[in-house]
Amino acid sequence: MVLEAKVKAQLNEYLQLMEGDIVLKVSANTDNVSKDMMNLVNELASMSPRITIEETELKRTPSFSVNRTAEDTGITFAGIPLGHEFTSLVLAILQVSGRAPKVDSAVIDQIKAIDEQYHFETYVSLSCHNCPDVVQALNIMSVLNPNITHSMIDGAVFKDEVESNNVMAVPAVFLNGEFFGGGRMTLEEILAKLGSGVDAEAFADKEPFDVLVVGGGPAGSSAAIYAARKGIRTGIVAERFGGQVLDTMSIENFISVKQTEGPKLVASLEEHVKEYDIDVMNLQRAKRLEKKDLFELELENGAVLKSKTVIVSTGARWRNVGVPGEEEFKNKGVAYCPHCDGPLFDGKDVAVIGGGNSGVEAAIDLAGIVKHVTVLEFMPELKADEILQQRLYSLPNVTVLKNVQTKEITGTDNVNGITYIERDSEEEKHIPLQGVFVQIGLLPNTDWLGEIVERTKFGEVVADKHGATNVPGLFAAGDCTDTPYKQIIISMGSGANAALGAFDHLIRN
What we know:
By secondary structure, the chain is α/β, with parallel strands linked by helices. The chain has three domains: 5-193, Glutaredoxin; 201-317 and 442-508, FAD/NAD(P)-binding domain; 334-438, FAD/NAD(P)-binding domain (3-Layer(bba) Sandwich). It is 28% helix and 28% strand. The strands form six sheets. The protein has an eight-stranded mixed β-sheet, covered by helices on one side. Strands 9, 10, 13, 14, 15, 16 and 27 form a seven-stranded mixed β-sheet that branches. A hairpin with a 2-residue loop joins strand 3 and strand 4 (71-78). It is globular, with a radius of gyration of 24 Å.
């Protein structure tokens, strides 16, 4: 049996939701992965009379496709979609059977309007928490449009393809044989990348808002909900709803929830926001903010939104090391997510830059996968919690270098090493390796604000206890502010606080 009893019981409930018959067309061999895949497929078929199996020959072996009885839908799983991809498999079965995907009608119309032939292939690792969103989005497109096909490919099974296509970070999406994009992408982001995005005209007739929230992470979501509950006209502009939380694997300090994952928390946030009359403008990047009679927010697409008050909650992003080679070798050995990309460095030598909690946690995680990990810390001592340091130093395949400065990430087509300077002796040294994971903290996403508002030397927006900035009517919340602690739960409180501050400003002015 492939599936645990608890998982099988949950799966049985989902399979009851199937609306039509499907055929799993299987391409298998005598290898162990093929045998495990056949066990999974047979177990699925045994659980529902609506599922039948048909042997065939597909582009990759082992793999199987999910089809309607009289039609190939173009959805293929190369490898065994367990781990994080098990949900992708379940959703594919339900949607191919006829169950409608939970997608806005406008997005469905965009997908159905595509008349070009698009053949997508996504390389994943089963431990990657970003990969399922991309796989599920492309599967939905394949279900809705016969011109589109999609294959999920487990990089651990098809290592030769990973090497030949130079895949060093997942998810890695290829379109018609050419690299299309990497990292987490929503359905809307994929459509925008294909040229089906929302243009400025769609925003032309919007009335001024009472509160306009810029940013859709925990702070922005909280601010919008609190504002909307006051019965005032509220909007959210977000470059990517959920922000950096989408890239967070495990969350264990969100009080009342013992453990969750970033994407699950973001899905809950989005669901909660949609319970209210909030105008959510996703995939829109803020370009400029100006204070006139009303605030005017210009977007990258040229649209201008007006509002009586604005709450900036644009969060933060991973800090770059800023050395030669970092930008050149991104996704070619330079990575930022050990959970996602760690499996691609199986048996290889890697470095982790950063000795704080995130860096040491990354090193511990990677040590179980790679051949050897070298941790580089700029300060004389590691900054991580003592318990993490004890665990790190207990690992036989980890070297810790303290009081060193990264000088360059070297390589040709891919990373082949890292050069550093010992700060006390000023001696330059080089380590040959195949991967570098950067874990040195965050930078606020506030460059676009320019000189309109007071910011610290680090770029953080200065906000008072009401969330107010030095500009009347302009508020700020979350990780983009000068709050000393960057935590999800603190950002949520900060967003609520800023919304209440904005409402108080409105009723007094």
